[in-house]
Amino acid sequence: PDQAAVILKAIRTIYEPWLQSAAKQFQKVVSKTDYSHKFLPIPQYGTCVLFIDALRFDVGQMLIQELLNRRYSCDSETYLAALPTITATSKPAFFDPGEKLTGAETKGLTPRIQNKKSVLTAQAYRDLLTELGFQILSVGDLGDPSGIAWTEIGAIDVFGHQHGWKIAHHIEDELKEISDRIEDLLNFG
Predict the structure, then answer these.
(1) Which of 19, 30, 77, 98 stands 20 to 30 A from 37 (CA)?
(2) Cα Rg, the chain, nearest whole Å
């Protein structure tokens, strides 16, 4: 702990300029393309969407490896994320809720519900998903495997905000819990 500040300063000295350069390069590439966000299609019946807040590409690859180690097959596709990459924009970026959301006239980055002008809360988003035919599964719920479902798991974001870089020590436990949830859902059908 006494040396953490020195180590963090050394890492930041190397990492921050690299990250800044990579971000600028990425912005140049995206600005030269026709970047427009594309919603995913509503899933087929028999599908459960598992939302994992703050699951970044590198940790996603670790999750795939954990599932492969458990003898599950995995496919991985990459898409550009909705911007900014925060929960308030990431969740509603998955499925088109029928033009019920707007970013106009908002203070901050949280979308609003058209006509109601209220902020899109987690519960309001779940209500929109229910209107689209999703079952909303709480922790431990398995739902009806013949339908479509939405569930959330993980505390990567919360832990990261509370403990900063120490998330690196916690991520394996988090991935085990996520993998266990996936395994429970798959075994149920």
Answers:
(1) 19
(2) 19
Cis previous bond, 84, omega within 30: yes
Question: What contacts 27, CB < 8 A, 6 or more positions away?
Answer: none
Contact by Cβ (8 Å): 175, 68:
no
Specify which residues 149 forms β-bridges with: 48, 135
Give the tens place of pLDDT for each residue, 95-136: 777 777 776 655 667 777 777 767 888 888 899 899 889 999
Report the candidate in 167, 172, 145 with the shortest Cα–Cα distance to residue 157.
167
Q: How many residues does the chain have?
A: 189
Query: Is 114 within 8 Å of 99 (Cβ atoms)?
Result: yes
Burial degree of 43 (CB within 10 A; 0-12, 13-18, 19+): middle
Q: Are 44 and 148 in contact (CB under 8 A)?
A: yes
Cα–Cα nearest to 188, from 127, 137, 131: 137
**Alpha-carbon torsion angle 179, 180, 181, 185, nearest 10:** 100
Per-residue tokens: 86: 């925060």
What pTM value is reported for the model?
Answer: 0.79
Kindly give the pairing relationship between strand 47-52 and strand 101-102.
unpaired
Report pLDDT digits (tens) over 14-73.
999 999 999 899 888 888 887 676 778 888 999 999 999 888 889 999 999 999 999 999
- Record the tokens describing residue 59, joined without a space: 């940790």
CB–CB of 175/159 below 8 Å? no
